Amino acid sequence: MRLDHVSYAVARDSFVSTVQWLGSALGASFTDGGVHPRFGTRNFVLPLAGGTYVEVVTTLDHPAADRALFGRAVAERAAQGGGWLGWVVGVDDIAPIEARLGRTADEGHRVRPDGFDLRWKQIGVRELIEDPQLPYFLQWLVEPDEIPSAAPRTATRIEGLSIAGESQAVLEFLGEPVEHPLDRTKVTWVEAADEETGLVAVEFATARGPVTI
After folding, report:
1. Whole-angstrom Cα distance, residue 88 to residue 156?
2. Which of these, 209, 206, 210, 208, lies nearest to 46 by C-alpha position?
3. What is the SS3 string spanning the chain?
4. Model confidence over 139-167: pLDDT tens digits?
5. Which of 14, 74, 165, 200 allows an S-S link to 9, with CB 3.0 to 4.6 Å?
6. Cβ partners under 8 Å of residue 140, min gap 6
7. Which residues pair with 139 in a beta bridge?
8. 157-196, pLDDT tens digit by residue?
9. Residue 90 confidence class, pLDDT cut points 50, 70, 90
């Protein structure tokens, strides 16, 4: 298990401005990730040093956004004013997670502007909606040099996460792995205000110094 990426969800009318604001804050430019037709969403991505990336995602005016769990999660976060949707754990084999959660993973894909069909499986969005401190799991179905975190063009990297919730709840959801996906990332656990759990801030190391969003 490893930290794959962090996701920031916004409404459609603030999508472009949010991408520009985050890119300016982090000292690097996002690239158009394309449309997720099965989820009714689209994103821009910023590959970071250290093998992770930032995603800014919004919903489309499409029925899938209401049907798909991921589309619903993005819409709900956007309706709350936008912000960090959550953190995502990458795995090499999602089958053990499917067995533990008792259902099959959803298949996702998006065609990048260069025409490449990026494919993956994901599971755990249902739990993320219920308890936003929890991550969801993702297995890439393409070669490593095609995943969004490949070939970063910036030295900016994720230094730490601030999560409102309880570490034990996250550990149990992960299946108590020997190697925790956040072992290499500083995590600050904060008390959940009004029982609202979730990813509340991400600390980045940039060429201009630390930046917290």
Report:
1. 18
2. 206
3. CEEEEEEEECCHHHHHHHHHHHHHHHCCCCEEEEEECCCCEEEEEEEECCCEEEEEEEECCCCHHHHCHHHHHHHHHHHCCCEEEEEEEECCCCHHHHHHHCCCCEEEEEECCCCCEEEEEEECHHHHHHCCCCCEEEEECCCHHHCCCCCCCCCCEEEEEEEECCHHHHHHHHCCCCCCCCCCCEEEEECCHHHCCEEEEEEEEECCEEEEC
4. 999 999 999 999 898 999 999 999 999 99
5. 74
6. 90, 119, 120, 146, 147
7. 121
8. 999 999 999 999 999 999 888 788 888 899 999 887 777 8
9. very high
Beta-bridge mates of residue 55: 7, 45
* Inter-CA distances, 128 with 25, 56, 146, Å: 27, 17, 26
- Which tokens belong to 99? 């067995």
User: What tokens were used for 24?
Assistant: 């300016």
Query: In angstroms, rounded to a whole number, what is the distance separating the alpha carbons of residues 2 and 89?
Result: 6
Please indicate, yes or no, whether the overall pTM of this predicted structure exceeds 0.70. Answer: yes
